[in-house]
Amino acid sequence: MNNHQKQIQISQQGLDALKKELDELVSTKRPEIVDRLERARNEGDLTENSAYNDSKEDLEFLDGRIEELKDVIENALIIQLTVANGTVQMGTKVTVAIDGDENVFEIVGEWEADPINKKISHESPLGKALIGKAIGEQVEVEAPAGKIVYEIKNVN
């Protein structure tokens, strides 16, 4: 592993999803864009060929994503999803109460974070506050609207 890269904590499930995306980009999407680029190149004057320029930009963007995925996969550190002593860890689901309303969050690696589906990164402000805490403890998180107090109700 390259000493300049930090290890990226991720679950096996998250790593498998990234590998699947990489495979699809390399084996399907990239050849489609290369083919489109080749067809556009054969249309003549490249300076005024928007299909060529669009395809070239798409290919550059795709190649950037491919490199990014390769880097993450190469530096991935698979974390075991276990509940340690009833404390919040990466991979645990945490039930928290905010002013009586309960929410369940799953603590995941930054590459798996999906706030809409209540998957929050261990690097996020809430994730950092919750890591290592146990049922019954409270954490305060600074939010745009002010401090929010979360009470941990359950960890599994």
UniProtKB/TrEMBL annotation:
MF terms in GO: DNA binding; RNA polymerase binding
UniProt keyword annotation of DNA-binding present: yes
Family the entry assigns: Belongs to the GreA/GreB family.
PROSITE patterns named in the record: GREAB_1, GREAB_2
One Pfam family per UniProt: GreA_GreB
InterPro entries linked to this entry: GreA/GreB_C_sf (IPR036953), TF_GreA/GreB_CS (IPR018151), Tscrpt_elong_fac_GreA (IPR006359), Tscrpt_elong_fac_GreA/B (IPR028624), Tscrpt_elong_fac_GreA/B_C (IPR001437), Tscrpt_elong_fac_GreA/B_fam (IPR023459), Tscrpt_elong_fac_GreA/B_N (IPR022691), Tscrpt_elong_fac_GreA/B_N_sf (IPR036805)
Source organism, top-level taxon: Bacteria
Residue ranges of domain Transcription elongation factor GreA/GreB N-terminal in the record: 8-77
Protein's job: Necessary for efficient RNA polymerase transcription elongation past template-encoded arresting sites. The arresting sites in DNA have the property of trapping a certain fraction of elongating RNA polymerases that pass through, resulting in locked ternary complexes. Cleavage of the nascent transcript by cleavage factors such as GreA or GreB allows the resumption of elongation from the new 3'terminus. GreA releases sequences of 2 to 3 nucleotides.
Keyword entries, A-Z: DNA-binding, Transcription, Transcription regulation
Species, as recorded: Candidatus Woesebacteria bacterium RIFOXYB1_FULL_38_16
BP GO terms, sorted: DNA-templated transcription elongation; regulation of DNA-templated transcription elongation
Name the UniProt record assigns to this protein: Transcription elongation factor GreA
